[in-house]
From TrEMBL:
The protein's name in its UniProt record: Septum formation initiator
Transmembrane feature ranges: 20-39
Species in which this protein is naturally found: Formosa sediminum
Keyword line: Membrane, Transmembrane, Transmembrane helix
Domain of life where this protein originates: Bacteria
The keyword Transmembrane helix appears for this protein: yes
Length: 109
């Protein structure tokens, strides 16, 4: 009966002296080593997140460059000053028109 177990087709590969240490080595490298598969997977996820942030900031830099180029002209600077700070020229009147949907109204009062 004992011989029948060792002659089983599933047990025969484990008779080779290199199979069990090889399996141990593979398990060690996948889970327990400092350069394991799990750590590599986590680092790859971090790299993907950082690349996404990099793309976002590159897009923001490009938007800011376009806005800077617009403000760098005399017309763009005047438009910005008029819209943001309500500046005006001499002998000029400014009327600010606010619509009901653009007002900040507290509904609690």
């Amino acid at each position: 009966m004992k011989l029948k177990f060792f002659n089983n087709k599933y047990v025969k590969p484990f008779k080779n002296p290199f199979v069990i240490p090889g399996i141990g080595f593979i398990v060690w490298m996948l889970f327990f080593d400092s350069n394991s598969f799990l750590i590599h997977n986590e680092l790859n996820n971090d790299i993907d997140k950082l690349n996404d942030k990099k793309e976002y900031y590159i897009n923001e830099i490009n938007k800011d460059r376009k806005a800077y180029k617009k403000l760098n002209t005399e017309y763009g600077l005047e438009k910005f000053a008029r819209e943001t700070y309500y500046l005006k020229r001499e002998n000029e009147d400014i009327y600010i028109i606010e619509y009901e949907d653009s007002l900040n109204v507290n509904s609690h009062e």
